[in-house]
Amino acid sequence: MRRLLTTALLGATVLAGPALADPQQLAADAAWTMVQRGDLVLIDVRTPSEWAMTGLPRDAHVATLQDVDFLDQARGAVLGDLDQPVAVICRSGARSRIAASKLEKAGFSHVYEVAEGMSGNGGAGAGWIKRGLPVDPFIPPDN
After folding, report:
1. pLDDT single digits (tens) 106-134
2. 2-131 maps to which CATH number?
3. What is the pLDDT of residues 44-93, one digit of tens each?
4. Cα-Cα end-to-end distance for the chain
5. Has this prediction a pTM greater than 0.85?
6. Domain locations in the chain?
7. In 9-21, which positions are buried (b, 16+ CB within 10 angstroms) versus exposed (e)?
8. Residue 57, strand partner residues
């Protein structure tokens, strides 16, 4: 019931596959639409070298899954509001599933994963880049 209500409220297309009951999967184009409307915070969980190679989804926040402060970075992306809907994206979906699980365990209440990732993932979809969704260059912070 929560899934149907959340989906209806957000107006998104949720791809509910039988192998993945939770977290919910979200198509890249649906995620982008929700980001544009301000209904979703997108978090890219890849590494800086991957961001440099492909760029970042427009308006995405970054939080490298392997960083010890991953959860703190994710909390910062939502300004501490764990009820804010979030979606995680990686290269092809493997890390986004792990990241989504970590976020749910940490108390985030509306977590989605973009299972097709940036580069596509077989049956999950073509990926953010091949769908022609906007990408911004990654500019490393000055150290």
Report:
1. 999 999 999 899 999 878 888 999 999 99
2. 3.40.250.10
3. 999 999 999 999 999 999 999 999 999 999 999 999 999 999 999 999 88
4. 47
5. no
6. 2-131
7. ebebebbeeeeee
8. 135
